[in-house]
Amino acid sequence: MSRLAASLWVQAYLMRLQIEAIPAYVLAHGDDTAGAILVKLAPRDGTARLFQRVMAMDGSRPWDVLAEGAEDEVDAAIARQRRSDPDLWVIEVESPAGRHMLDEPGLE
Fold first, then answer.
1. Contacts of 52 (CB under 8 A, 6+ apart)
2. From CA 91, how far away is CA 93, in angstroms rounded?
């Protein structure tokens, strides 16, 4: 099964969030074709969660928490990941309710 280019997935994700009136921003623009994607959920309370895609045993690619805690600690985790992978995309979602839409059909 072929995968969607990273830039197209990011565009679709940002549009889906916009439809739900959830603010989101591209913090780092990665490789358009094959860049990995991190999603930072910032509920604007000083905390954050960082999601990454993982490969499950059944071949699916669910989202998993890479880091969580104080927002500055999550930002430090992002910086470490970007140093080792400059093609990495980073999307920040600002939702006080904690909505990220990653578990929606089509985005998993």
1. 36, 37, 38, 39, 63, 64, 66
2. 7
Task: Report which residue type is found at 49.
Answer: R
- Residue 103: phi, psi to the nearest 5? -95, 5
pLDDT digits (tens, 9 = 90+) for 10-66: 999 999 999 999 999 999 999 999 899 999 999 999 999 999 998 888 878 889 999
Of 49, 35, 36, 64, which is closest to residue 94 (Cα–Cα)?
Answer: 49
Burial per residue of 6-23, b for 16 or more beta-carbon CB atoms within 10 angstroms, e otherwise: bbebbeebbebbeeeebe
Task: Please report, for the chain, the start and end positions of each structural domain, with discontinuous segments joined by +.
Answer: 6-94
**CATH among 3.40.1530.20, 3.40.50.10420, 1.20.1050.10, 3.40.50.720 for 6-94:** 3.40.1530.20
* Beta carbons within 8 Å of 86's beta carbon, 6+ residues apart: 30
CA-CA-CA-CA dihedral for 5, 29, 38, 62, to nearest 10:
-10
